[in-house]
Amino acid sequence: MTHFSDKQWERVRGNYRKWWKGELGRPILPYAIGNKKSGRPEPAIPSPAFSNCLDLSISPEQIVDRMDHDLSCLEFLGDSFPWVNMAHFGPGVLAAFLGALPESRPDTVWFRPSKRIPVSELHFSYDTDNIWLNRVKEIYHAGMRKWGGSVCMAMTDLGGTLDVLASFLTTEDLLLSLVDQPDEVKRLVQEIAGIWKRVYDEIIEIIKSQQGFSDWSSIFSEEPSYILQCDFSFMISPEMFNEFVKDDLSQMASKLAKPFYHLDGIGELPHLESLLSMDAIKGIQWVPGAGNALKQNWHELYTRISRAGKKILGDFDIDPSLDNVVKILERPDDLVNIQRVYPSIKRQEILNTLSKYGVT
């Protein structure tokens, strides 16, 4: 069974507590090393993934047992901790909780409506008997029975409200509706947001006795938080963002302790100024996307985010990428690296990096 002592947890909580306050004096560096022997037979079922998350023949207990095996094969270094990513039901799984049909792919899960309904006739309500909502809750319950809160089960990827709405209308129809029927879109956004909050609260109630909280970003918080997003926004103007997205984000962010925003692709960059103006959003994750955008130097963007007083979620390699970013920030505490699993061959290199930054 996965073992992470109370002393280890206190160190993680203490480091994050200082980091959130800007008192740690260094970035958060969570590194895990794989390939450790678990000391028990490997479970027959595969590790949870997009490709098998919808397989109802696998019980919640089997899923949690597989998660536990995988965690027991890790060595936690630096600021890392036993964290379970519950995003395998797909980005924007709230769509499935609202009645959309999920379809697994090797690298994601798509959601489509059971039937097309015009925006003016579309309504959303909470469904107590939704199979996918109950499936996810059962896995959380099984995890709490297994670990008693000593493993941090992340919040599932509920998604952004407009992204969820696009799953029912299609992206093209939603774009047209923003112009032709804006009041209907705003109504639906409010309906989705209300159910989003209810689902979030119900999951938090299940896992409230954990050592802390996280989401697919792996950022740790002692209070319930989340990384917000609106991938749909890359297709709309800053004016439309302010009209249809900003208020919704503000309401969501005000409910959470330390929310981040997932800024995905260069099409979302025009909205950065609005995001930086929102006090409730504490940090930004910038994802450049594929192709040339991935190869560009984004130091000026990181500097802009840091100077605005926001923290940054990064995915920087050990050296020299990490050093190059830290030195341009206003404060080294502004950076948290996403938690990744590295092969054992990288262990000494990681230990050297941790030593350089004073991580004990």
For the structure shown, list the relevant keywords.
360 residues; alpha/beta; 3-stranded mixed β-sheet; 13 helices; 41% helix
What is the fold's blueprint, element by element?
Blueprint: H1 6-21, E1 30-33, H2 60-72, E2 75-78, E3 83-84, H3 94-97, E4 101-104, E5 109-112, H4 131-147, E6 152-153, H5 161-169, H6 171-180, H7 182-207, E7 227-229, H8 238-255, E8 260-264, H9 272-276, E9 283-287, H10 292-295, H11 299-307, E10 311-314, H12 321-326, E11 335-337, E12 340-342, H13 347-356
Parallel strand pairs: 1-12, 3-6, 7-8, 8-9, 9-10, 10-11
Antiparallel strand pairs: 1-2, 4-5
Helix pairs in contact: 2-4, 4-7, 5-6, 5-7, 6-7
